[in-house]
Amino acid sequence: MSKKRTPSEAMSSCKTVLVVDDEPRMVEFITMNLELEGLRVVKAVSGYEALEKAARDMPDLVLLDIMMPDMDGFETLEKLRDNSSVPVIFLSAKGEEFDRIHGLDLGADDYITKPFSPRELVSRIRAVLRRTEPGASTSGSEIVVDDELHINFDQRRVIVRGQEIRLRPTEYRLLYQLVTNAGKLLTHETLLSRVWGTEYRDEDQYVRLYITYLRQKIEKDPKNPRYILSERGLGYRFKELGS
User: Fold this and answer.
1) CA distances (Å), 102 to each of 52, 78, 95, in order?
2) How far apart (Å, rounded) are the C-alpha atoms in residues 6 and 2?
3) Distance between CA 169 and CA 173 in Å, rounded?
4) Which of 107, 130, 192, 222 is the most buried (most CB within 10 A)?
C-alpha cells in the first residue's frame, strides 16, 4: 500500500522552483531540502542563466540571490518582470530595510535573510505558493464601490476611473479581504494571517507596504485616501459600500 501524502506534500507535488545563487554550496543546500519536500529544482548560478531557465522551464517560483556578479538579483528581477509574473523570493545576506523594500517594489513576493533554516525556507515557499494560486470562485456580480471604482472578484477585474488595472496576486488578495469586509476594522494581525499566512504574523511592514501599493493603484490621491482608511496603530478599514 502506498503511503498517503500529507496536505503539504500534495501541495508541493509537481511544483518547480528555480534556485539562483552563485554559491554552489548554498545551491546544493537549498536543493537538498526542497527535494525532500517533493519539489522539483532547477538551478542557475547567474542572472543570465536564471532568465534563460525561467523562460525554458517555466518554474512555479524563483529563489533569487541578490549579491551576484555581472547582474545582481535586482536587475535580474527587473528583466524577469518584463515578461513573467512568476513569484520571486529574494535571498540575501543583507537584511537592511531599504533592500527589502526595494526588492518588493521591483515585484518580489518575499525576502529571506541569510542564514536561514530549512524549515523557514520551506514555510515561506509554501506561503507564497498559496498566495499566488487562484482563489475559490466568488459571486460573479460586480461590486460598484462608486462611479470611479468597480470590482469583479470572480473575473479578477478591477476598473479604476474607466481603466482596468493590473494587481499582483498579493495585492488582489489584500483588496479582497478589505472589500468583502467593508466597514469593518481589520487589524494588522488579521490581514497578515488571511493574506500572507500565519508564518508572517510579525511582519507588519508587509501590510503597510502593500496598502501603499494598493492606494497608488486605486486612490485618486493616495496621500488622502477615501477607500482604504487607516486606524492608527490598529489596522485598516475599507469604506462602507454604498456610503
Assistant:
1) 24, 11, 12
2) 12
3) 6
4) 192
Q: Is 111 helix (H, G, I), strand (E, B) or coil?
A: strand
Long-range contacts of 213-220 (CB under 8 A, 24+ apart): 213/168, 213/171, 214/167, 214/171, 214/174, 214/175, 214/178, 217/158, 217/160, 217/165, 217/167, 217/171, 218/149, 218/158, 218/160, 218/165, 218/175, 220/148, 220/161
- The predicted-structure confidence for 81-98, as pLDDT tens digits, reads as follows 888 889 999 998 876 777
pLDDT for the residue numbered 105:
84
Cα atoms in the 13 Å half-sphere on the side-chain side of 175: 28
- DSSP strands (E only) in the chain: 16-20, 40-44, 61-65, 88-92, 110-113, 143-146, 149-152, 157-160, 163-165, 185-187, 228-231, 235-238
Report the pLDDT averaged over residues 140-145: 79
Instruction: At 10, list the grid cell.
Output: 500534495
- Report whether 77 contacts 107 (CB < 8 A): yes
Q: Which tens digit of pLDDT belongs to each residue from 176-231? A: 999 999 999 999 999 998 888 877 877 888 899 999 999 999 999 999 999 999 98
Other residues' Cβ atoms within 10 Å of the Cβ of residue 149: 20
pLDDT tens-digit readout, 35-76? 999 999 999 999 999 999 999 999 999 999 999 988 999 999
Beta-ladder partners of 163: 160
Q: How far apart are CA 147 and CA 201, in angstroms?
A: 36
Q: pTM for this structure?
A: 0.72
Strands (E), 21-146: 40-44, 61-65, 88-92, 110-113, 143-146
